[in-house]
Amino acid sequence: MSSSPVDDKSKSPEGGSSAGSGVDRSSAEKAVTGWVAALIKGDVEEACLLMAEPADGSRPAQVGSTKTCGDGAPERERMKATLGQFKESFTPDPPSSDPKVEVTQDLGAGDKVTVPGAEINVDGQPLDKIVLSHSTGVTQDQLDIKVESSRIEGSWYVTNLDFNVG
What is the pTM of this model? Predict the structure, then answer.
C-alpha cells in the first residue's frame, strides 16, 4: 500500500504481537480481522501497526511500528484522513463499539492470502454488503473488495486493499 505508514522491518518487533500494543500478527486472519475492526473503531494507530509494504526489489519490507504509527508521527497523521474514509463504509447498521470481525473462508497456506469482502463478516454481516448499504447508485456486481495479507519476517500484515467500484 503506498499510503501505509511504515518503518524498516528491523525496527519493528518480530513475532506474533507488537509489544505493548495488543496487536495480533500471528496469522493472516488475525491481521485482517484486527485491521478491519480498527478501521471501524477509528483506531488509526492499531490499523497502522497491522499494515506493511512487502519488499520490492532492493527495498526492504516496510512494516508499521510504534515509531511510524505512534502519537504525532507524520505518517499516522497522513493516514488518519485516508483510513477515516473507510470507518463509515465498513460500519454495519446497527453500529457496535466493539465489532466482531471474522474471516469465513479457509485461507490455506503460503505467505500471501487475499480475502474477498464477501468472506469478511462484521457483526455477522458480509463486509461487501455493509459497504454496499452505504453506497448510492452502486450494485453488488459493481463492487469488488479484497484485502491482502502477507507474512513478513514471521508476522502477518495487511499489505493491500483492492476497493473497486465500476
Answer: 0.84
